[in-house]
Amino acid sequence: MKEIFLGITASMFFAVTFVLNRSMEVSGGSWMWSSSLRFIFMVPFLLFIVLIRHNIKQVLLEIRTHPFQWLGWSFVGFVLFYAPLTYAAAYGPGWLVAGTWQVTILGGILVAPLFYTTVQTENGLTTHRHKIQKKAFLMSTIILIGVMLIQFQKVSDLTFSEALAGILPVLVASFAYPLGNRKMMVLCGGRLDTFQRVLGMTIASLPFWLILCLFALFKVGAPSQGQLIQSFIVAVCSGVIATTLFFIATDRVRLHQGKLAAVEATQSTQVLFVVGGESLLLASPLPGNVAMAGIGIIIIGIIMHSFSVRGGRSSKKSDLSNVQEKKVF
């Protein structure tokens, strides 16, 4: 339950991303600056936290030991996650992007077969590939139905091109984020804490963001003061606070596939925060009856996930001392 609470809290801060990214696009800002500035602004905050905890040496050692894996999976988990989201914000409203993003709760479940676990038994080491959690998949599908109902009242106002540009990039991000996150958890093997891992992934993704900055500078010019301020807010709220909380929650349950799916499903609550944020800041209309029904279904889905996690805790608890995750590249 603590992990689910952390996931919901992270979703509240994640919602800032969708609202402010849309706000920056409406005011004429470029998606290239919105995406790259967030991660550039994250570096000093994360670096300060890790330095005062005297943990920077281990981060650099891990990156030096597996440089290509760090570059590759940080690109997947951060660049292929956030660049498509900000691009989609240029062509679709925040609620459409946030709603489509909820496919990630299924994405996290569907990438499970890419991982396997080695367990020490009486007969020696036994390796098995992770399976798709059918129960978690069903409950996550229920949540997605609620998300679709929230969008139902507004989707008719979009043109086909707006819907396409606002949906396809987000689908890429929906699978890239859980895949990159899980791969990095396996690569680190518990040797790094959450702050170290987020800092390491941010540093490893910096070359890609700096290239995007140069491209943006030549294509659209320097960012405005308003975009700098809003990107800074996104970096703190979403990049530092939300990402750290979410990674803490997923790291705690990384060896429990059902619990991991439940934590990832809490991201669906972002839609609720985005709808409220856009109504307050961007004067978007409040949800109608159909959308309210969708909100109710989302809440029911989260509660079902929560009780599922509590019910399976005693019977499915893993002995972390005997379990060793392996990576599949």
From TrEMBL:
Keywords: Membrane, Transmembrane, Transmembrane helix. The chain crosses the membrane at residues 37-56, 68-89, 95-116, 136-152, 158-177, 198-222, 228-249, 261-284, 290-309. InterPro entries: EmrE. It comes from the Bacteria. This is Multidrug resistance efflux transporter. It comes from Halobacillus karajensis. The lineage of its organism: Bacteria, Bacillati, Bacillota, Bacilli, Bacillales.
